């Protein structure tokens, strides 16, 4: 247990704060992305929960945000380290999964797909698309930070990992 | 370096063989998923490379398959372990990303999305959709195996990780 130094703790806490600072705007921006547009006499509206993948994105980012917040306090107690390292891997996979899925669907929204007969929707809902792009960007930053956290976990986990071959 | 036993090596090699056995059919099934259908006098065809996400899936699975194959031989030399552990994390993220993105797009293909005006295509292309489902399932198995490999890496990486708190 002594192998986790104060410096290790400070670095992981800072990384988790950055992850928290990226996940919260990704949730907020996705949730407030709704837009209404009038075509002739009909009003069409776009909002994130019309697409199941975008709802998954919000849930995944919220789990990552909540986990980052809780683990900042938990990580002060070294005995939780083993569980935290496994949960770091799980949260990294969750973020990777949700950002990738959301980006794939967002790209269909932007470019459409002529083969499948899916028209792009960003012409009608440009604000919605801009907000989704912003949310995905923040989610991507959070994912990168969590990948760094996992690599840093590997670094502090083992003297073996850092020893000369 | 002595901390990696013969048993550790055999278990990781077996896991990598299972991952290889899952990624290869996922590539093959996705690549041969093409289907043509005639509607009135027009012939429509569906194939994986009509959708950029499905192409990304094939590339990601091919990288994972190639990596699994190469690393089975590399892992016999212990000095590569540190690089292999980092690459295991990268390949796990790549598999998670590609399977999630492909599943998100495949679900639009299956269910469509009325809000976005995207019609489902599985009515016209049922063979294509079945094959994509098969490929995603194999990709999902490969992802689970790689998550197990990363967790097993953590297990063998450090005596600290296994010590009592």
UniProtKB/TrEMBL annotation, chains A, B:
Bilayer topology term: Multi-pass membrane protein
GO cellular component: plasma membrane
Name of the molecule in the record: CASP-like protein
Keywords: Cell membrane, Membrane, Transmembrane, Transmembrane helix
Membrane spanning stretches: 12-33, 53-76, 83-108, 131-154
Keyword Lyase: no
Compartments, as annotated in UniProt: Cell membrane
Assembly with partners or alone: Homodimer and heterodimers.
Keyword Repeat: no
InterPro entries per record: CASP/CASPL, CASP_dom, CASPL
Domain called Casparian strip membrane protein: residue spans: 7-144
Domain of life: Eukaryota
Similarity comment: Belongs to the Casparian strip membrane proteins (CASP) family.
Annotated source species: Cephalotus follicularis
């Amino acid at each position: 247990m002594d192998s986790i130094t104060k410096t290790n703790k400070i670095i992981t806490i800072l990384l988790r704060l950055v992850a928290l600072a990226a996940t919260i705007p990704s949730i907020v921006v996705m949730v407030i992305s709704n837009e209404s547009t009038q075509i002739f006499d009909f009003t069409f509206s776009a909002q994130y929960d019309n697409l199941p993948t975008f709802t998954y994105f919000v849930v995944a980012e919220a789990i990552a945000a909540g986990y980052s917040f809780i683990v900042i306090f938990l990580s002060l107690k070294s005995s939780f380290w083993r569980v935290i390292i496994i949960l770091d891997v799980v949260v990294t996979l969750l973020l990777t999964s949700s950002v990738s899925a959301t980006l794939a669907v967002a790209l269909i929204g932007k470019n459409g797909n002529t083969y499948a007969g899916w028209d792009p929707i960003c012409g009608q809902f440009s604000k919605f698309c801009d907000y989704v792009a912003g949310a995905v960007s923040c989610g991507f930053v959070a994912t990168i930070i969590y990948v760094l956290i996992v690599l840093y976990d590997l670094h502090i986990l083992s003297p073996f990992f850092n020893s000369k071959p």
